[in-house]
Design a protein that fits this description.
- The protein is an all-beta fold.
- It is 0% helix and 48% strand.
Amino acid sequence: QVQLAESGGGLVQAGGSLRVACAASGRTLSRQTVAWFRQAPEKDREFVAAIFRSGYTPYYGDSVKGRFTISRDNAKNTLFLQMNNLKPEDTAQYFCAVDSQIILSQLRRPEGYSYWGQGTQVTVSS
C-alpha cells in the first residue's frame, strides 16, 4: 500500500508560480512511476507530468510543457511539481499518482495508476 498526501496548492495570480508536493509513505517512490494529473470541474482528468520508474526522463502534457517541472526527492520520498507562468486555465484539483507496474504506453492514462492522493486545489486568477 502507498499513501500519498498532496500539499502546496493555493490561489495565485496569472503569471505567478506555485510548487505542489506529494509526500509518500508505504513504498519508495524511486521504484515507482510517479505522475501528476489535474481535473477541473466538469472535465476529464488530464495528464500533467510523469517520471517513469526505470528512468529520469520527465514526460509532460502539451498544455504545460515549458512551464511545469516534475521532480522527485528520493531522500524525502516526495514528488514535486513546480508550476511557473501559471494561467487561469491551469485552475484545477491537482493529484499525484504512483504505480509500480504501469507500462510506458499507459503513462498518460489515469486508469493505469493504482494509488492516488486526495488532491490539492490550485486556483489561478486573471
